[in-house]
Design goal:
single chain, 12-stranded mixed beta sheet, about 20% strand, globular, two-stranded antiparallel sheet, about 325 residues, alpha/beta
Length: about 325
């Protein structure tokens, strides 16, 4: 059965960063909570190799982890991505988050290897706005990547859009876009200023919820994180809103692995990292157990809300970092 932490949260999924390299330079990027560690696009010695990734997944599968999402950086910069997907335990559903630029020409290979779902980052339908956010001129290539994913059978394709000052004016257009285009869904992701250091870019996500509720044909609530889904003219829009959200953290069932092979119990924390290094499988099992056992809901426990806002819970202030 799945491992659970002291807050009765079972871990049923893992997010594995395959690289911190990326061909984009998105202004909101927090690199899976690690900050800006991105380097050149050439392969780096500190990245886990395919054997490391597969060995960890095999251990996770022993504890009934049934889903893995490969992330980055840009995971498709890994030339061995198809091999990793192919070697992932059959009991795991395999998905990936990508900027989409490498999907043309590779999507079919990844589907054949076992990839089942894909999220493509697309923050605007306007090429100039897209370039300003991503610091790239690859707008047309991303659109081609979305089509390649659909053609390869990765249906539905989720478009990830971070909602912040630079993109808020394009939300309505993106909602219309997924309503008009069969096979697409939209995931609006709340901007996380604590990870990017630019609080002035923040947007009140509750206003987005309110607007969608007003125009939606129906609203659903997902059990995971108590997320809301809005169906608008046949298109589906879901909001991911973790900031200050105790319900979101209370429903978290994921452990993360950094590109360097460190287990990470929470997106917002880097004081709980455990390196798997050159570990054997028995050692990885024990390290995975320890990581799960010491997971703490970020909002509502690690941080507690007071009259002055969210403050560190004294219980965890002296918790030693684990490297």
């Amino acid at each position: 059965m799945p491992l659970a932490d002291d807050f009765d949260r079972e871990v049923t999924g893992v997010r594995v960063s395959l690289t911190d390299r990326c061909n984009f330079d998105c202004v909101y990027c927090h690199n899976e909570g690690l900050g800006d560690t991105r380097g050149p696009s050439a392969p780096q010695d500190h990245e886990m190799d395919a054997d490391d990734v597969v060995q960890f997944l095999e251990v996770a599968a022993e504890f009934d982890v049934d889903a893995v999402k490969f992330t980055g950086g840009e995971p498709m910069l890994r030339q061995d991505l198809a091999e990793i997907v192919r070697r992932t335990p059959e009991s795991m559903a395999v998905s990936m988050t990508t900027n989409g630029t490498f999907l043309p020409g590779r999507a079919e290979e990844l589907v054949d290897a076992g990839l089942e779902r894909v999220n493509v980052s697309q923050d605007a339908l306007d090429p100039d706005a897209f370039a300003a956010v991503t610091q790239s001129g690859a707008y047309d290539r991303v659109l081609e990547g979305v089509e390649a994913a659909l053609d390869a059978g990765l249906d539905p394709v989720k478009l990830n859009m971070v909602v912040f000052e630079h993109t808020k004016g394009y939300v309505e257009g993106m909602v219309d876009h997924v309503a008009e285009r069969e096979g697409l869904r939209l995931q609006l992701i709340e901007y996380m200023p604590e990870l990017t250091g630019r609080p002035e870019w923040n947007v009140d996500i509750d206003r987005v919820h309110g607007w969608l509720a007003d125009i939606a044909d129906r609203v659903e609530r997902r059990e995971m994180h108590d997320r809301r889904r809005y169906w608008v003219d046949g298109g589906m829009v879901e909001i991911v809103d973790p900031v200050g959200n105790e319900s979101f953290c209370a429903g978290c069932g994921r452990v993360r692995v950094t590109h360097e092979g460190k287990l990470k119990g929470c997106l917002n924390r880097n004081d709980d990292l455990r390196s798997m290094g050159e570990m054997t499988k028995p050692e990885i099992r024990e390290t995975f157990r320890e990581t799960v056992a010491e997971r703490v809901p970020y909002y509502g426990e690690y941080l507690v809300e007071t009259d002055d806002g969210w403050e560190m819970n004294d219980e965890y202030v002296e918790s030693p970092a684990v490297e």
